Known about the structure:
Layout: H1 3-37, H2 46-67, H3 83-117, H4 129-152
Pfam families: DctQ
Family: Belongs to the TRAP transporter small permease family.
Domain Tripartite ATP-independent periplasmic transporters DctQ component: 25-156
Amino acid sequence: MTVEQLRAGMRTVTAVLLGVLLVALTAVTVVDVVGRYVFNSPLSGGTELTELLVMGVVFAGLPAITLDDGHITADLFTQLFSSRGKEIQLFFARVLSAVALAFGGWQLWEHGARLAGYNQTTLYLKIPMGPVAQFAAVICVVSAAMVLAMAVLRVRRAE
């Protein structure tokens, strides 16, 4: 399997997953707003569901963004570099991204462990928060491994 095939597959899987999450987010919002203003009865736990769905959207898209080199960058001086200089800059940018993602993953894992230790749940729906944070941590670490592999293997920048 080539990198381009992997990117295409990841785009498809991510698009479907994000589509489902966004439809669910829209449904929760519509039901909550209609319930609140038409029936004077908002969706129970609607705010918690909205927060969790937004978190799901952010972290579900992270591996695909990583694979596509889609992170926000500032290319102020890149046009001044030779092609070799651009390769070196891309390598270090990817390594820095891997370090940042790994650090974020580690911190999320630790936070999730603390939340689990306190048996922290959402207020209304009683959804355990520790596993939610640790799921986000795993996604960060997987993304860190992906971007580090892309740096080491010198994978071309996505077009």
